[in-house]
Give the backbone structure.
Amino acid sequence: MRIKKLAVLAMSALLVGGLLAGCSSNKEEKKELVLFTWEGMFPQEVLDGFEEKTGIKITFSNFDTDETMLQKLADAKGGDYDLVIADDYIIETAIEQGLVSKLDKEKIENFNNINPVFQSQFYDENDEYTVPYGAGIPLIVYNPESVNFEIKGYADLWNESLKDSIAITANYRVINGITLKSMGESMNVDDVDTIYKAGEKLKELAPNIRLINDDNTQNALLNGEASVAFLYTSQVTTALAENPDLKVVYPEEGLGFGIMAAFIPSQAPNSDEAHEFLNYILDPEVYAQCIEYIGYYSTNKAADDLVSDNLVLPDDAAEGEIIQNISAEAEEAHNKIWIEFKSECE
Amino acid sequence: MKNRTKLPNIYLGIIMTLMYLPIVLIVIYSFNESKLTSVWGGFSLKWYEQLFKDREMMEAIKNSIILAFSSCILSAIIGTIGAVGLARMNFKTKGMIEYLSNIPIMIPEIILGMVFLAFFSFINLPKGMLTLIIAHTTFCIPYILMMVKARLVGIDKSLAEAAKDLGASEIRAFFDITLPLIMPAVLSGSLLAFAMSLDDVVISIFVTGPKVTTLPIKIYTQMKFGVTPEINALCAIMLVVTIGLILVSTRIGRKKI
Amino acid sequence: MENFKKRKKSKLWLTIAPLYIFTLIFVGGPLIYMVALSFMSRAEVWGIVADVTVENYTKILEPIYIETFVQSFKLAFSTTILITLIGYPFGYFMAKLSPQWKKRMMILIMIPFWTSALIRLYGWIIILQSNGVLDKLLMGLHITDGPLKLLYTYTAVLIGMVYSLLPFMILSVYSSAEKLDWSLIEAARDLGATRWKTFLTVTLKLTLPGLLSGVILTFVPSMGLFFIADILGGNKIVLVGSLIQDQMTKGRNWPFAAALSVVLMIMTSLMIYLYRKITHTKDLEGIL
């Protein structure tokens, strides 16, 4: 490839690159906030509103799963990030590992807006570390046009007529959990043999799996790639908004339940700004905007009147089972049956 | 030539068409009004508008260009003088160092990503642009080394020797004689390195820090998250820029002749 | 050696010093650390404990991980075979074109390199998805009645792999075939050899270095391209690459990830070693 032209091309590309880099690297000293959560957790207006109000520049950093978040946070030794929003059980681990700092509630005037139902949970019994951001119940949603029987519970996912047509989320604790539930066990069972038994059962589900994906799993349902999906609350909301004919199943074996909460890492470089942001999103109007956008259940009592009815948690739902941390051996077993399940899928 | 049939050309044509088919579709769908790619909702430029409004995307593009540019320059310097040195010298560990420097492109990227993440954590180097540049430089160097080395083989060594005999210093001889001769190789090596760096996702995902998102990482997250047609528009623009640069360079090439 | 040459050399070492230092620290260092890490054990929740153990290696021998290696090799083999079948004739025919067309083809092959590999894969999603371009075409031609479920299958992953790595094979074979002395082939034909025999005895033999380097350049990366299996395979195929990534992130087991990497690296290095033995060359052809 001794082509001269390509060399010239390289030069021009480098030149353009250099110019661009030179232009844009003007230094600005601005207050900033590094927000670490899943993609698509805040509407742009809310972020813009905060920047406008406070002059704090928000840097959005994403992770795909809770476990990745924990790895990155631990790797940064609790620094680098200013505010993290993640799931309940992983927060417990993060707190145990000393990666979370206590909140200074005096800086969060709106702290009392939080719905007490979602407080004092297992991961933060004294409400010292976290602010709940939303709650969810993963549910089965299906398209009655392409499923020829009524789905009532998790066990129906194993039905042979659903070959190659189920989309599921990628959190192995959740999927392994519903398998355990379909066997009448708890999602948090610590007995390794039971988990392996669930693994055997999970393998039988493999032929029915079309797609495993954590983000926007509902798309598979909407564009016809899958006819049944096991979805997070936000995805259920979006799916129904786009196609009201879809059917939602509250599985008869019992519901799972989860809370996402925000916390400030122990070595957060901009802890003050993080407190300011927490206070900002706890404002009922701002919070309502957020929750309408992400489609989870509201955890903010003051905002309940402002959000759509379907986003206020029904009273009985909070009885669902929350995924909690289990022993390292049990965790290892979960990890392993998940890999076995995945490799069985194709 | 005898026995020349049209068959080979048809074959080349078919494969080329297949190679460009996805790209053409992306360009077409970048003008699609509808968000879904299974539906054609009419012609629209709104995704282009949205792309330029997307601050995070612009930031990612900027980061990627800075990264590709820095690692490319760094590896061009290290690689070029290194290759010249290697060609002129013989020492015990020469084979070892050549082998070692080539490793980054000889093993699956995932290993490189994994070892860099572990290593940078081990030596407590905060992850961000610096770690990205280091990681990218390691896999850019081999491209330049190989190109320059191949070029050096074809160069008459006596030229530089003659210059030295005429009294030029070692450094003068390098800049006046050797460098101009190997420049095309340096440039095409840099070009390849630049393209590789600009497109790397596997290694970058591992070594990047909280504040730096490169373009491929951004695209990867968006694709996992469910694509917005914005990245179709981005692809179309990249294509236009590339073709534009090629046209410009062929123009320049012609004028010279 | 003459005295005055030695004097010159003493200055020359400066030219390789940066390469030496950089490579030792940032290639040698991490690799040594990887090997060391693979003999450590993971801490209860997070982190690494410096207890020397071979447990990480014995763990790889568990059926599920062996299976993962087998799967990865299968995919890499199928990818490489397909790429060879498609890419070899392409590179060969390309070398026979007129100089002007050679240049044009070269540019055409290089252009996609400058767009994002990920976005190009997305183009395949547009084609393969339910009611996508291919489905519509087939249904329009009344070849199929309903949407085929093509996306999120093994086939889709294979297509993505072949598509992403094909240019490397083409360039390798091309650079070998371009140096080919065509008169040799004509001579063989004149001596009465059949087309097939000429190909086997002359052409193939002379382009073997290019072909083999193409095989390496496609086989080695295909062991690690986990994102293609992610995006086109619906996350269902577990490859060594995705296993390493999982262990680094979700699994929080770095020592095991390191052990997996060591094994994978030994396997790929072995292939490159074989290549060098067969072709008696040091560098891979084609990326030049």
